[in-house]
Specification:
Blueprint (H helix, E strand, L loop, with lengths): L1 H8 L16 H6 L14 H13 L22 H15 L16 E9 L3 E8 L4 E8 L13 H7 L10 E7 L2 E7 L4 E2 H5 L6 H20 L2 E2 L8 E5 L5 E5 L6 E2 L23 H4 L6 H17 L9 H10 L5 H4 L5 H10 L11 H10 L3
Antiparallel strand pairs: 1-2, 2-3, 3-5, 4-5, 6-8, 7-10, 8-9
């Protein structure tokens, strides 16, 4: 185990063998934000730990980096520990998954020449590839072979079929959907730009560019909702930002692997399985509570994205997964205008409404958010 960690961490970090190492007092840990008590960390099995460390090392040419996150200015105690423990149990259960083997493109697929992997998620790997029929580079998304396309945990068929009908410049274009010896794949346009997460690693968006980013993101989301689909995994890494030839910003929503089709009445059916899906910093209270969802769920997640785009950190913070979920459920965050100089009270209030823990206090639909944004002066 020790040798494995040394191999992963490399020479820049070491695993001490010394029996004389001085222990760190718990009082010191509590006062020093560099330390986190082990009891505050949700369970991860060894595979998950190794995967996290490898991802940690992969940033910035293998040099370990710690991304700075601005801490919340207001902290409140957890109001319902029983509820938090119940939610945390679901979170830990969903997090305990085996590392999937690399997905190889099918040798019998003669149309698409897969060149290199460019991204990986929980359900698929995305490759840069060449469409040999037309000589154009594309994004080739290969789903993991163990994904259940017909069961309750997968059921991607209808979602994929619906998303391919979305024709909007702010949504990634789907060119082809197929199945070969290695399973299901999707072919999309290759966006030559950066996702918002990478941009935010070096800087926040300026107010002068935020309005364009926000409007385009919302226009794409409105087109998705028009097809009765919820994205359900909106986060900075799923929003691509590139440039037109003119230099104008171009925003596209990507990765519909968690998308769900709304039933009659504009809501999704409540999941039978008690598993959390999504990204903890952008997950709505109704997702945490495993309730039915509607368009306001995506509005909540987009509001969290908008907040981070300007503030550099998500609105809901905590020293553990449980505390982050508690912040969502208790709507505990610092208003945007208190975090970012120059943000108007009107913009701050709009974002606060978007990330309200109460559905009825959020904008009713995406069009309402766009209309309010267009009235604001930046």
């Amino acid at each position: 185990m020790k040798n494995l960690l040394k191999k992963i961490l490399g020479p820049s970090l070491s695993v001490s063998n010394s029996p004389t190492a001085e222990p760190i007092e718990e009082s010191t840990i509590q006062k020093d934000q560099r330390y986190t008590l082990a009891s505050d960390i949700p369970h991860y099995d060894l595979c998950q730990l190794v995967r996290n460390i490898e991802d940690f090392k992969s940033r910035d040419n293998g040099k370990p980096q710690i991304r700075s996150m601005r801490p919340a200015l207001v902290k409140k105690p957890l109001e319902d520990d029983t509820e938090m423990l119940r939610v945390a149990e679901r979170f830990n259960r969903a997090d305990k998954e085996e590392v999937k083997p690399p997905v190889k493109p099918a040798k019998g697929n003669t149309r698409y020449d897969v060149l290199e992997p460019i991204g990986e998620g929980g359900t698929a790997i995305v490759y840069r590839a060449l469409d040999l029929n037309i000589g154009r580079e594309i994004a080739f998304k290969r789903f993991h072979p163990d994904i259940d396309l017909h069961g309750e945990t997968g059921n991607f068929n209808k979602e994929i079929e619906t998303v391919t009908r979305v024709d909007h410049p702010n949504v990634v274009v789907t060119h082809d959907v197929g199945k070969d010896a290695d399973g299901l794949f999707i072919v999309m346009n290759l966006v030559k730009g950066k996702d918002l997460e990478r941009i935010l690693e070096s800087r926040c968006l300026e107010l002068s560019e935020f309005k364009e980013f926000a409007i385009q993101s919302l226009e794409g989301l409105m087109a998705v909702h028009a097809e009765d689909v919820l994205h359900l995994d909106l986060k900075p890494s799923n929003i691509m930002v590139s440039s037109h030839v003119s230099g104008r910003m171009h925003v596209q929503l990507i990765d519909f692997g968690s998308a769900k089709v709304m039933a009659a009445g504009g809501r999704t059916k409540k999941e039978k399985k008690n598993d959390l899906k999504g990204s903890i910093y952008f997950m709505s209270p109704e997702q945490i509570n495993n309730d039915s969802l509607d368009v306001r769920t995506d509005i909540y997640s987009m509001g969290c994205v908008f907040y981070q785009a300007l503030a550099g950190a998500p609105p809901f913070q905590g020293e553990s997964a449980i505390q982050v979920m508690a912040a969502h459920l208790q709507n505990r965050f610092v208003p945007l205008h208190e975090q970012v100089e120059g943000v108007s009270m009107e913009l701050s209030n709009l974002v606060s409404r978007m990330i309200s823990s109460k559905l009825e206090q959020r904008p009713a639909d995406v069009k309402e958010v766009i209309d309010e944004l267009l009235k604001l002066t930046f």
